[in-house]
Amino acid sequence: MPLLLDVSFRDGYVSSIIYVSLYVSLVAVALSTLFSVPVAVAIGFADFRGKGFLKSVVNTGMGFPSVVVGLLVLFAVSNQGPLGPLDLVFTREAMIVSQFVLATPPITAISLAAVDGVDDGVRDAARALGGTRLDAALVVLKEARYGIATAVLAGFGRAISEVGSVLIVGGNITSSEGISKTRTLTTAIQLEARQGQYETALVLGAVLVALVLLVNAVVVHFGDGGVTR
So what's the pLDDT on residue 130? Predict the structure, then answer.
C-alpha cells in the first residue's frame, strides 16, 4: 500500500483520462440505450418470420471482436471512408462511435431477453384496459426495468473496459502538458504497464474498478427507488 501511495502523477493527468473515459463511455452507452431499448421492444412485440434468426444475430454481436470494430470505424472515419469529410480520425467522437457499436449488441440482447421474460398476461391486461400498443409497451418496460438496467450496465462495462478499438480509433493521445485528448484509463494502464510503471498501472486500475462500481451502485439505487415508489 505505501508503494501505491508514493506514485506521483503529472498535474491533471489522472483527472483528464478519467474525464475522457467517462465522457466517451457514458455518451456511447446513452446513445446505444436510446437505440437498443426501442429496437428490443419492437422485436419483442413483433411476430414475423426470421425473428429467431434476428435474435441469433443480435446475440452473436455480443462476441464481435473489438479490434475488428476499431478497424471498421477507423476506415469509416478515414479520408477514404464515408465519414471522412467530418475529420473524426483520432478524436473522442470516433471513440464514441466505436463504443456505441460495441455496446449496442449486449444492451439490445439483454433488453430483448428482459422484454420476452415479461408474462404475456401483462400485455393482455394493458390491452383489456383499453391501452394502446404504446401503453402496453410502457407497461412491459416497467416490468422489465431490472433486466434493462442490467443491459445498460453490461453495455457500460463493455465500453469503459475497452482497449483495442479505442486505441485504434483514438490513438491514445495526450497533449505536451500530459493532458489526455483521447487517452482512457484502459489505454493508460496498458501504456504504463508496457513501460514497466506497474505501480502507476495498479493505481489507474483501482480507479477504473472504483468508477465501474460507482456507476453500478447508482443504477441499482435508482432501480430500487423505482420499486419502492
Answer: 66
Which residues have CB under 8 Å from 211's CB, separation 6+?
A: 18, 21, 22, 160, 185
pLDDT digits (tens, 9 = 90+) for 108-123: 999 999 988 887 777 6
Q: Please give the DSSP secondary-structure letter assigned to residue 90.
A: T
pTM of the model: 0.86
179 neighbors 56 (Cβ within 8 angstroms): no
- State how far the Cα of 37 lies from the Cα of 208, in Å rounded to an integer: 26
Using a 10 angstrom Cβ sphere, with 0-12 exposed, 13-18 middle and 19 or more buried, the burial of residue 48 is: exposed
Helix axes of 51-61 and 13-45: crossing angle, nearest 10 degrees: 170
Please give the radius of gyration of the chain, using alpha carbons only, rounded to the nearest integer. 20
What pLDDT sits at residue 90?
93
186-203 burial, b at 16+ Cβ within 10 Å, e below that, comes to bbbbbbbeeeebeebbbb
Segment 148-171 mean pLDDT? 91
- Cell numbers standing for residue 57: 444475430
Nearest to 215 by CA among 176, 157, 170: 157
User: Across the chain, which distance is largest between two alpha carbons, in Å?
Assistant: 66
Distances (CA, A) of 225 to 23, 145, 146, 222, 228: 25, 12, 12, 5, 5
pLDDT surpassing 80 at residue 97: yes
- Burial zone of 53 (CB within 10 Å; 0-12 exposed, 13-18 middle, 19+ buried): exposed
**Residue 52's closest CA among 116, 9, 8?**
116
